[in-house]
Design a protein that fits this description.
This protein has 332 residues and is an alpha/beta fold. It has 2 domains: 244 residues, P-loop containing nucleotide triphosphate hydrolases (Rossmann fold), CATH 3.40.50; 61 residues, no CATH class. The chain has 11 helices and 12 strands. An 8-stranded mixed beta sheet has the order 6-7-8-3-9-10-12-11, with helices on both faces. α7 links the parallel β7 and β8. Bound molecules: iron/sulfur cluster (SF4).
């Protein structure tokens, strides 16, 4: 059995776009050659500004959207075409947690009915077994049995996200895509939901893709981190390495905004220029208009994502490849 529950190779997602009624159609590339893998029972965090392709990557992995190019394997087998019965069976093993729990829940149904829904859809257990499982799931996410009789608007934001989690866990998934799962919640509730996710992951051996623009949360929950910029992964490595010594200039800017426990606050690197627009991709390294180290080469040549050590990959012309101490020292 492979250590990875899901792997993706060279994922590309293009959308057709038109800037005006009479303008010719163009193609916008939201995801541009993403390769990644998530180990069983571990968490890969994906960070980057809006427009970086984080959420699209998550949807491609689940097969909710078809990729324009590339391949995805789940548990060692290619993901079947969306909409087929084989894909629907597989979807029971992969679930999505949305950003806004109120939008994810149906206002007309009780929480218990919605938690039971995946069991009905996938025909799991008889009526009594489903009732019992709903009680177990509500308890697992810290909700009382009477919360099951409530409607979504009668619960707090944190309780709703717990209900969404209970529903996602109903079919015993092995892989969760969590897309900004705490960003719509009060700060005081965010830590509780993150702790709950970690507990549930340990208890049920679930792998997670944790998508967020909040680096503090990503650092707390992730084993590995992939940093995306304009549809590409520009750095990937263990969470510890990425936050201790970020190598890509974009990662350095992101990490500089997060206080590191036990280390003095470093000088904050303020990113210049506008956040990326996939419809207007700069030449060469897409980060070059905002990069303080950009050279002429950066404007014309796109850096490939290359392994710098056994455990880290970076896409930057100035980061040495396969050296013991990859670093931008000397140019900084
Ligand atoms: Fe900056 Fe050049 Fe590296 Fe891109 S390739 S991150 S522009 S130094």
């Amino acid at each position: 059995m492979s250590a990875d529950i899901i792997t993706a190779q060279g994922l590309v997602k293009d959308y057709a776009s038109r800037r005006g009624m009479f303008a010719p159609p163009t193609t916008v590339r939201a995801v541009d050659g993403v390769s990644l893998s998530v180990e069983r029972a571990s968490t890969l965090g994906i960070v980057g500004e809006s427009g970086s392709g984080k959420s699209t990557t998550g949807r491609l992995l689940l097969g909710i959207e078809p990729s324009s190019k590339g391949s995805i394997s789940f548990d060692g087998r290619p993901i079947p075409a969306a909409g087929t019965s084989e894909w629907r069976r597989l979807r029971a093993r992969m679930q999505l947690i949305y950003q806004d729990p109120l939008a994810a829940l149906d206002r007309r149904l009780t929480i218990a009915d919605q938690v039971r829904e995946p069991l009905d859809v996938h025909n799991i257990g008889d009526a009594a077994e489903r009732r019992e499982r709903v009680h177990e799931l509500l308890a697992a996410v810290g909700l009382r049995p009477d919360h099951g009789r409530s409607y979504p608007h009668e619960l707090s934001g944190g309780q709703r996200q717990r209900a969404v989690l209970a529903r996602a866990l109903a079919s015993r998934p092995e892989f969760l895509v969590c897309d900004e799962p705490v960003s719509a919640l009060d700060v005081s509730i965010q830590a509780q939901v993150v702790n709950l996710l970690t507990d549930l992951q340990e208890r049920f051996s679930i792998a997670m893709l944790f998508i967020s623009h909040d680096l503090k949360v990503v650092r707390n929950i992730s084993d590995r981190v992939a940093v995306m910029y304009l549809g590409r992964i520009v750095e990937e490595g263990s969470s510890e390495d990425i936050f201790r010594e970020p190598l890509h200039p974009y990662t350095q800017a992101l990490v500089s905004s997060v206080p590191q426990p036990g280390t003095p606050l470093k000088e904050r690197i303020i990113l210049q220029g506008e956040p990326p627009n996939p419809a207007n991709r700069p030449s060469g390294c897409a980060f070059h208009p905002r990069c303080r180290f950009a050279t002429a080469r950066c404007r014309s040549e796109t850096p490939a994502l290359k392994q710098t050590t056994d455990d880290r990959s970076v896409a930057c012309h100035l980061v040495a490849v396969s050296t013991a101490q990859p670093s931008l020292e000397g140019v900084v």
